[in-house]
Write a structure and sequence with these properties.
Elements: E1 5-10, E2 18-23, E3 29-34, E4 40-44, E5 58-60, E6 63-65, E7 72-74, E8 93-96, E9 99-103, H1 104-111
Amino acid sequence: MMPQWIDVGAVEEVPLRGSRAIKVAGGEEIAVFRTGSGQIYALINRCPHKNGPLSQGIVHGDSVTCPLHSWVISLVTGEAQGTDKGCTPTIPVEVHSGRIMIERAAALRLAA
């Protein structure tokens, strides 16, 4: 079965080296990131350390630094970098005609 996608906005609504938080059903938030090179990634908006809001962190390369305790999280894998241990779930994302699409099944799993 082919994945179904949810349109969460235009690419230009997410600043370069920035992010945007999106609420999904159940109150969970997804953080959508745009790197300096224009790549789009989506993660649950919680650092694996102390649940800091990753959408408020600093985007550098393909990583984000949590604003609470400076953990660096890979936007590609969700894994904490360096000596820190933990993982933030990633959300499959695609871009179609300038629109950011997240996988519906992943968003529904968050709401459960």
